[in-house]
Write the structure tokens for this entry.
Amino acid sequence: MLAAVRPKNAFEVALENFDIAAGYLDLDHDVREMIKYPERVLTVTVPVRMENGHVRRFEGFRVQHSTVRGPAKGGIRYHPNVTLEEVKALAAWMTWKCAVVNIPFGGGKGGVTCNPKEMSRNELEHMTRRYASAILPLIGPEQDIPAPDVYTNSQTMAWIMDTYSMTKGYPIPGVVTGKPVCLGGSLGRNEATGRGVFYTIQSACDHLHMQLKGATVVVQGFGNAGSVAAHLLDTAQCLVIAVSDSTGCIHNKEGLDIPKLMMHKEKTGRVAGFPGSEAISASELLALSCDILVPAALENTVVEENAPYVKAKIIAEAANGPLTPEADAILEAKGVFIIPDILCNAGGVTVSYFEWVQDLQHLFWETQEIYNRLERVMRTSFHDVVKIRADRSVSMRAAANMLGVGRVAEAVKLRGLYP
């Protein structure tokens, strides 16, 4: 009897995509060895006194994949399924993502294995501050700048900024991005990822000579990125026919009222039960006929088994790593146009860069200026990737990885090897 094949973890997928890009670029062995694996990996114990008076131990991670092009940059996620391999993958993707949009950061990522939905505000604050203290030797405005990610937000960043500042003895707003505006945060940061997704979808429709107005859209994951992308697509007169979150999936073939759905989600904490919609399964959602599918949840949601049933013409990866390499191959063969994650969802880190710059110069920009700058970056990066795709006859994912990996490889060649 044959043993079951273990599915690849996220870091193995990241390494596989790196090897494909490095092969196309014909990178030599020495350069590959210098940029493929993380520079630093930190695992920490995070003890927290819970509301019941007992201490509970959580496990946390911070990974710096690369600082070749600048300080490490990457979010912190709180989720029950956070693992070191996942955080390593996310840090690697951040390296290539920052390089694709050509901002002077390397890749980092952090996480704590926990279920924030089952924790009180006090417990979350204590855990955040303890975690921040544990990773403090690695972070700083010139070293490694955290940001929000899954189930973390501007309040989480405020606690980290305060913890770091208290240990240094003076306020250092540039240690994190995605913090509240009154603490040095940037206007436009909360919706930056979703807005970047929207700009790349617009660019894809222009490239494919496809009408955006009237296009049918399915959004898997109605968190920050997914809800903002859905709202902007709805504003552009697309028909958002289905969305999902961790509580369920809803569908209306005539289109969902996205502003009302956002209010429903804010009020109830879920998309399930939205008036005028029907409940469907997660597998049915991915198999709906639509023009644009926006996976905005977690990694590995479109896999070899369900990829054949996906009917979208464009897949815009608002999440990190939502497609496995096997799913990629199937969808590419079907002619699906994929906007890869390291391009599609780079709006968040781009506006994080804008926030960091504003903090350093103590001069802040208006919202429209931020939107204009973000749109220029996203559209330029999209066309850079499309050009490589056309010139080298490769997939969009390979082209994006070639652009990101190539820029990091160029930097490491110029810097050389110390000592």
